[in-house]
């Protein structure tokens, strides 16, 4: 502060409430600050906050996204840029990218939100029946009421029937279904259950590299130990059990490996695991006594010829009782991906298999602390797992919309691979599934040196320059993990085809300019 400031002026750091509170006397005695603290020191600081939170990183909404939002504000203020809009290709947010909602889903949700519309003849009868059934299962016939903590019973029943149909009749028990706030919430909950121990006995969690940063962030937040196993980029990001064993054996020196996470179809890499690969993973999990977590939120997003989604549960049960009665597993699904893209409703579920009944009771207790998942999200999930049937009036339009969305994504997956592979210095594997591509980029040595001078990872430096020059927001591969000495970026294929072509064109132009600039 200036030495000329009036000595009677309150310290600007103090809020009025704190300033007054420091002068309150209880029982005639003045409160005394704790030793080592001053009356103006904060209760919560970076030094005394939860150290695990400081370790959390989430690249999908990291510094580059913050800069993109700042540039958007600058454009609105009239600041001149080499582009007129920022195109955010950093996140799998389908509706934000222009995808239209599925009509039937929104009709039923509208009816649930405003039941007076049930009298409106503009809504089809099957939509009204679905809405009425959901409302009848809600407290006070309102989706504004809390549900049971595990989720609305009729929705869990519908999820179980959906799983049975998907997996060819393998039974699913609604009591093993937990509805959740998107799949992310359920994944965090299971990892919280599994984390224990100290030092060398601390839980180790095996996650694929590249990975979706939810996993590394949650492992850090829980104070668990990340065990990285690398997907094989040269074999279209396939998973090799020998690599799992290498990672596991190395980790046993400093932690207790207990969990194996699989993302299939893959995020950010877009691969679809073969049935043989899934069988090998299940055998490995049994041999090493690992809890399996199967992230299957992209199960409808399969595009490549010869690729097919196989659920871990179906493969597990097809392998017989030796595996189906012993391997502990949780699988996850969401309303945010596939053809729905309903990210904002935060609907999802997990199914737990072979979980110890006493642990399951603790899981139920844990989810009850959060009261319940969003009820509109539960209603939406019910429609995803119980869509219009062939004898219902909405079936034809529903199937057309669903098919059109998935066909457009398949075409955009093909287009992305094709265009990127025409550019020297960009190598793109086929996008077999999911919603992203994760191409490898070759960066000049001068650019790598320049990035280090600026305290950035080289692919972060690349993506930041791309944002400043072309208005394209991507996520650097370093935010997902990658082999030392390799560089990538993740890009969603969700923009409409005409806008996607612009994105691809700008990235290709930029890469050629960037390479020349730093050669």
Automatic annotation (TrEMBL):
GO terms (molecular function) for this protein are: L-alanine:2-oxoglutarate aminotransferase activity; pyridoxal phosphate binding
In which compartments does the protein localize? Cytoplasm
Q: GO:BP terms for this protein?
A: L-alanine catabolic process
Q: Which pathway does UniProt place it in?
A: Amino-acid degradation; L-alanine degradation via transaminase pathway; pyruvate from L-alanine: step 1/1
Q: Which GO terms describe its cellular component?
A: cytoplasm; extracellular space
Q: Which reaction does it catalyse?
A: L-alanine + 2-oxoglutarate = pyruvate + L-glutamate
What role does it play?
A: Catalyzes the reversible transamination between alanine and 2-oxoglutarate to form pyruvate and glutamate. Participates in cellular nitrogen metabolism and also in liver gluconeogenesis starting with precursors transported from skeletal muscles.
* Assembly mode: Homodimer.
Spell out the InterPro entries in the cross-references. ALAT1/2-like, Aminotransferase_I/II_large, PyrdxlP-dep_Trfase, PyrdxlP-dep_Trfase_major, PyrdxlP-dep_Trfase_small
Name listed for the protein in its UniProt record: Alanine aminotransferase 1
Entry keywords, A to Z: Acetylation, Aminotransferase, Cytoplasm, Phosphoprotein, Pyridoxal phosphate, Transferase
Q: Which residues form the Aminotransferase class I/classII large domain?
A: 108-507
Task: List its EC numbers.
Answer: 2.6.1.2
SUPFAM superfamilies per record: PLP-dependent transferases (SSF53383)
What species is given as this protein's source? Anabas testudineus (Climbing perch)
Q: Which gene encodes it?
A: GPT
Q: Which family does it belong to?
A: Belongs to the class-I pyridoxal-phosphate-dependent aminotransferase family. Alanine aminotransferase subfamily.
What are its cofactors?
pyridoxal 5'-phosphate
Q: Which domain of life is it from?
A: Eukaryota
């Amino acid at each position: 502060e200036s030495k000329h400031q009036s000595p009677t002026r309150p310290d600007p750091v103090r809020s009025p409430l704190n300033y007054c509170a420091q002068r309150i006397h209880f029982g005639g005695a003045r409160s005394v600050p704790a030793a080592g603290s001053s009356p103006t020191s904060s209760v919560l600081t970076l030094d005394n906050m939860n150290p695990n939170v400081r370790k959390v990183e989430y690249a999908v909404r990291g510094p580059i996204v913050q800069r993109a939002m700042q540039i958007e504000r600058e454009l609105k203020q009239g600041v001149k840029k080499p582009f007129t809009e920022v195109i955010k290709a950093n996140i799998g947010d389908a509706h934000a990218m222009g995808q239209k909602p599925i009509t039937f889903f929104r009709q039923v949700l509208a009816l649930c939100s405003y039941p007076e519309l049930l009298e409106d003849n503009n809504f089809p009868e099957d939509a009204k029946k679905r809405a009425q059934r959901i409302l009848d299962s809600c407290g006070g016939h309102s989706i504004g009421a809390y549900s049971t903590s595990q989720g609305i019973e009729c929705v869990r029943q519908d999820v179980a029937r959906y799983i049975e149909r998907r997996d060819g009749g393998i039974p699913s028990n609604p009591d093993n279904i937990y509805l959740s706030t998107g799949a992310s919430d359920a994944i965090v909950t299971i990892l919280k259950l599994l984390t224990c121990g100290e030092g060398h006995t601390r839980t180790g969690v095996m996650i694929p590299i590249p990975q979706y940063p939810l996993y590394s962030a949650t492992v850090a937040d829980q104070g668990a130990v990340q065990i990285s196993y690398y997907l094989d980029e040269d074999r279209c990001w396939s998973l090799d059990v020998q690599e799992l064993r290498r990672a596991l054996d190395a980790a046993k020196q400093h932690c207790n490996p207990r969990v194996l996470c699989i993302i299939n179809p893959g995020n950010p890499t877009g691969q679809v695991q073969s049935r043989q690969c899934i069988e090998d993973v299940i055998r490995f999990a049994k041999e090493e006594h690992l809890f399996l977590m199967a992230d299957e939120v992209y199960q409808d997003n399969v595009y490549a010829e010869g690729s097919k989604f196989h659920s871990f549960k179906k493969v597990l049960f097809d392998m017989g009782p030796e595996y189906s009665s012993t391997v502990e597993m949780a699988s996850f699904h969401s309303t945010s991906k596939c053809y729905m893209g309903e990210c904002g409703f935060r609907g999802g579920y997990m199914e737990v298999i072979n979980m110890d009944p006493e642990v399951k009771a603790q899981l139920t207790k844990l989810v009850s602390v959060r009261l319940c998942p969003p009820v509109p999200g539960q209603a939406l999930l019910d429609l995803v797992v119980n869509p219009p049937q062939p004898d219902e009036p909405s079936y034809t339009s529903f199937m057309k919309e669903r098919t059109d969305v998935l066909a457009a994504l398949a075409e955009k997956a093909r287009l992305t691979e094709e265009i990127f592979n025409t550019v020297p210095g960009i190598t793109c594997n086929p996008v077999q599934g999911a919603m992203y591509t994760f191409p490898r980029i070759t960066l000049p040595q001068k650019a790598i040196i320049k990035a280090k001078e600026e305290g950035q990872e080289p692919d972060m430096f690349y993506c930041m320059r791309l944002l400043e020059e072309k208005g394209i927001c991507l996520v650097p591969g370093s935010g997902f993990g990658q082999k030392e000495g390799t560089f990538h970026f993740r890009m969603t294929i969700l923009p409409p085809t005409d806008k996607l072509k612009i994105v691809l064109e700008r990235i290709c132009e930029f890469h050629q300019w960037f390479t020349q600039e730093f050669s």
